[in-house]
């Protein structure tokens, strides 16, 4: 007897880099999709040699190979939502942006990954222009952290008001539908506070601050959880709020592995009885 559960299983696509340490990138995204009961597909953009201490090396995948992976997934399986993470260079960004348009990939979440928490550069300097002009305008949501929001807006961020102003500038400059400025890099009580702006409505999203040094992969996990929720058919604000709860819980169950910043933990559904 065939016990397959198609065609009701939602499918999401991650277009991102590999993290050998398993805390961020493709590994975090696929794990997050799985814990949302969403089938995960992937297009790998680069391979990092990485652990909890930092990034030791990066190798780019040729843009045509990234394109081939996306085509292979979309031509046959189809996706209900997608996210981008580490895209590394301007050529990969241009190729992905073109394909998003050609294939009409729905519910695109762009996590504009530029630098890791350990300080490693994850995007070439000359690639920001393509991210801002070619890819972000095609997204349903862009999720810059404090540093990325400063680069995209050209505005220094030191307060909640600054996060709000940056979200408005990014919205205006890119034409993206919704901006979520993340506050993981903010000091004190603002750490863990995010700002949502859709052009009309601005909302401050708050969950409890989790005191831990093991925060590796928070941004990847958040954007993957949002994409998973969109694939499940949730509206955007619900998808974001529930993804934020997921990240908060994952931070509460973070993994003290390695000698540096361990990753957030995804095993809580299995641990909570
Ligand atoms: N210590 C923390 N406690 C609660 N939420 C946090 C904490 N650190 C980060 N977050 C949340 O995790 C998500 C990812 O944000 P952030 O860490 O800024 O992204 P990135 O990993 O891209 O730098 C956001 O929703 C942010 O508010
Ligand atoms: C391969 C890869 N992609 C993305 C990141 C950045 O991940 P993020 O979730 O923003 O977490 P931190 O690196 O800031 O802890 C990465 N490091 N590697």
UniProtKB/TrEMBL annotation:
Which Gene3D superfamilies does its entry note?
A: 3.40.1190.20
Q: Can you cite an annotated GO cellular component?
A: cytosol
Protein origin, superkingdom: Bacteria
Which E.C. number(s) belong to this protein?
A: 2.7.1.49, 2.7.4.7
Query: In which pathway is this protein known to take part?
Result: Cofactor biosynthesis; thiamine diphosphate biosynthesis; 4-amino-2-methyl-5-diphosphomethylpyrimidine from 5-amino-1-(5-phospho-D-ribosyl)imidazole: step 3/3
Statement: the UniProt record of this protein carries the keyword Hydrolase = no
Per UniProt, the enzyme's principal EC class comes to transferase
Its recorded reaction(s) are: 4-amino-5-hydroxymethyl-2-methylpyrimidine + ATP = 4-amino-2-methyl-5-(phosphooxymethyl)pyrimidine + ADP + H(+); 4-amino-2-methyl-5-(phosphooxymethyl)pyrimidine + ATP = 4-amino-2-methyl-5-(diphosphooxymethyl)pyrimidine + ADP
Every copy of the Pyridoxamine kinase/Phosphomethylpyrimidine kinase domain together lies at 19-264
Q: What GO biological process terms does the UniProt entry carry, in alphabetical order?
A: thiamine biosynthetic process
Instruction: State any single GO MF term.
Output: ATP binding
Provide this UniProt record's keywords sorted from A to Z: ATP-binding, Kinase, Nucleotide-binding, Thiamine biosynthesis, Transferase
InterPro entries per record: HMP/HMP-P_kinase_dom (IPR004399), PM/HMP-P_kinase-1 (IPR013749), Ribokinase-like (IPR029056)
List the NCBIfam families hit by this protein, alphabetically: HMP-P_kinase
Q: Per its record, how is this protein called by name?
A: Phosphomethylpyrimidine kinase
Q: What organism is recorded for this protein?
A: Tolypothrix bouteillei VB521301
